[in-house]
Amino acid sequence: MNLQEELKKLSEKIKQYRDEARVQMHLAREDVKDEWDDLEEDWDRFRTKIDQIMHDAENASQEARQTAQKLGEDLKSGYQNIRNKLK
Question: Over the stretch 63-73, which tens digit does the pLDDT of each residue have?
Fold first, then answer.
């Protein structure tokens, strides 16, 4: 699997977790809502970085790719955490 496919798959998984958590947010405690707001800011940065890399994948530096991958994994974990708290 190449980098673009990996990042696209990661982005889709994050979006799934995000969508599931959003559905339950109206029942969430205030501390979970604060965590959600922080993750939403990170989500926006992640989408911008992914869009840049996907647009110009050949010229994206290794550091940019690693940064996007790390941010994506952190977001995935964050949204998983929120989903678990809302169960």
Answer: 777 888 888 89
| Cα 13 to Cα 63: distance, rounded to the nearest angstrom | 22
Burial 26-48 (b: 16+ CB within 10 A, else e): eebeeebeebbeebeebbeebee
Answer for the pair 75, 12: CB distance below 8 angstroms, yes or no. no
- Tokens linked to 60: 């994206």
Residue type, 61: S
Residue 84 to residue 87: CA distance in whole angstroms: 5
pLDDT (tens digit per residue) in 31-57: 788 888 899 999 998 888 888 877 776
Domain map of the chain by residue range?
3-86
The amino acid present at 41, given as its one-letter code, is: E
